Amino acid sequence: MEPGRLTRDKNFDSGISLQQIRQQNKLAVTADILGTEEDVEEKSGLLRALVTVGLRFVSASDEGEEESDGAVAVHAEVEATFCAVYRYSEKMTDDEIAEFLRFNAVHNVWPFWREHVLRVSAEAKLPRPSIPLMKPKD
To answer: Fewer CB within 10 Å, N or C, the chain?
Structure first.
């Protein structure tokens, strides 16, 4: 697992107009049950969530257009993986874990992602990305 990365096309112009590029976002969440505490009859344990978030800048003209190999031309990309560990007190079903991760894990790491990507983008002289405050989804 790579905790974070920054890639940038060496010909990417830092002064490019925001009308000439667009931002694409990425979000992926995976989880592992780390184990249970034996003295509580396997009802308690630890859940580790890995939340991978990222964004990339592509040409605005790439909207719906792909290169011959199916990829779009990426000018710059920032990605990071955050780990959140939770203790649970009752056995959870896969659906309950998925629902918990969909909201809680992403919500808990989002402020760290925002700070990270805004700082890295400024240091790399990338356009300021649009990273909204995390709002619950219905």
So the answer is: C
Pair of tokens at residue 26: 């990425």
CATH of the domain at 53: 3.10.420.10
Strand 45-59 and strand 74-88: pairing?
antiparallel
Rounded CA separation 116/6 (Å): 11
Range of the domain at 108: 4-123
Strands in 19-125 per DSSP E:
21-36, 45-59, 74-88
**Total of domains in the chain:** 1
Q: Which amino acid is at 76?
A: A
Nearest partner of 93 among 33, 29, 28, judged by Cα: 33
Tens-binned pLDDT, residue by residue, of the chain (138 aa): 567 899 998 888 878 877 889 999 999 998 887 766 554 455 677 889 999 999 999 988 755 555 555 578 889 999 999 999 998 877 778 888 888 888 889 999 999 999 999 999 999 989 999 888 776 565
DSSP secondary structure, 100-138, as one string: HIIIIIHHHHHHHHHHHHHHHHHHTTPPPP--PPP----
